[in-house]
Write a structure and sequence with these properties.
244 residues; OB fold (Dihydrolipoamide Acetyltransferase, E2P); Trna Endonuclease, Chain: A, domain 1; 2 domains; six-stranded antiparallel beta sheet; six-stranded mixed beta sheet; 3 helices; 41% strand
Length: 244
């Protein structure tokens, strides 16, 4: 995914609500930027961190800038992290289409935000094979989660209690029970990762649902990304560790 226009550099002053952050631009101007990331953003909201923002030309928008990337401070230095949760579905779709995600090949149709399930949900990506030469006869339901939390090179989700995340796992289990294929996909928008685990220390209930869903046949996948101020692309998979 290439950004449509050059991002604007700044320094984070404070994330002061779920949707807003104050930033000092490189020009010295102080602005308030929108953020689509409603999680706790642990390790990604340190005041003074370098950030990059996209700029909208839509005159009807209340906030002109959107927070896209933060330079997170780690024990090994700094690492760029994509924090815009609105990008994750696009990143996964792109990586399926260009063949990066080997586990999700063989489909010729990708639909987004399709209604499904017993709890009035929408699946992020629905993969299907159409036409006379079907390679995969069973549709694949892919639920995408954006991951930014990393500790000691281990990525974790969620970074706050997520009843919505548990709901999505229940829906995926129902897909498998009905004979379908279901994938929980962790889109890790950073590169300093060697494996993924559920964040049991933050939301044990989610971790328990993840273990239950995997046992029932839901497929967990995790891919990390190369993040720069010009583009973000998924690059390779990392192991998903699901303790018994």
């Amino acid at each position: 995914m290439e950004f449509d226009a050059p991002l604007v550099e700044g320094r984070l002053i404070k994330r002061h609500s779920r949707f807003l952050a104050d930033v000092e631009l490189a020009s010295g101007e102080f602005i308030t930027a929108h953020t689509s990331n409603t999680g706790a953003m642990l390790g990604c909201k340190q005041p003074g961190s370098k950030v990059w923002l996209s700029e909208s030309s839509n005159p009807k928008r209340k906030y002109r800038y959107t927070w896209e990337i933060v330079e997170a401070i780690t024990g090994a230095g700094v690492v760029p992290v994509g924090i815009n949760t609105m990008r994750s579905n696009l990143l996964v779709k792109e990586a399926i289409e260009n063949g990066t995600i080997s586990e999700l090949q063989g489909y010729n149709e990708i639909r987004t935000e399709v209604k499904y399930g017993k709890e009035n949900s929408r699946i992020d990506l629905l993969l299907r094979s159409t036409g006379t030469e079907k390679r995969n006869h069973t549709p694949c339901y892919v639920e995408v989660k954006n991951v930014t939390l990393v500790e000691n090179k281990i990525a974790s989700f969620p970074d706050a209690v997520s009843k919505r995340g548990a709901k999505h796992l229940r829906e995926l289990m129902n897909v498998v029970s009905d004979g379908g294929r279901a994938v929980i996909f962790y889109c890790i928008q950073r590169a300093d990762v060697i494996e993924f685990r559920s964040a049991d220390h933050i939301d044990l209930a989610y971790g328990q649902f993840l273990r239950q869903s995997v046992a029932k046949g839901v497929e967990p996948l995790a891919y990390l990304a190369c993040v720069t101020s010009k583009s973000i692309h998924l690059t390779k998979s990392v192991p998903v560790v699901v303790p018994a």
